[in-house]
Amino acid sequence: MTNSNDVEYLDLVDNDDNVIGKEDRNAIYTTGLRNYRVVNIFVLNSEGEILLPKRDSTRRIFPNCYDFSCGEHVKSGETYEQAAIRGLKEELNLSDLKLIPVGKLTPQNGVSSFMKIYKVINPGRISPNKHEGIESIDFYPFDTIKNMISKNPKMFKDDIPKVINLLGGFL
Question: Which end of the chain has the lower number of beta carbons within 10 A, N or C?
C-alpha cells in the first residue's frame, strides 16, 4: 500500500491494451480516465464458495458494499499476473496459489477499466492483512451471490454484477 505522500503510477493503455504512457493514480481518478489496468480475483474455498469482503462505512467509494475477494491496480511496469500475485499476498497473505484466468474486460464492456479476472482455489484458512476499511469477510455460494445481486445490485461494488457471470463458467 502506498503512503498518502507517495505517488503511485499506473500505465495508461490504448484500446488494444498497449501501454501508451503513465499517470498518477490520483490524477486518473480526478480526471475520470478509464484506460488503466486492474486485476480482480475471486478466491474460492474447497467447497466452491466465493470469498466476499464487505467494505465498511468509512470507505470513500462504495461504502458498505461487497467487493472482489482481492482487487489491485496494476502499477506502471507491472503485468496483470504480477499485480494479482502481489495483491493476494498484500491483502490476504496468500501465496503459491495457481492463478486461473477467468476473462478480460475493457471499458467498452461497461466496466471501470481494463480488467483481468482470475480465480484461485484456497483450501486453507484466510488471514487478511488489511482489516482497515473492511467490515466483514465471508464465503458465499455462487447462487447466493447471484440472488443477492438480483435483489439489490447496489450492495456490490459497481463492476461485480458485470463480472460475476464470467465466473459461473469457471466454477
Answer: N
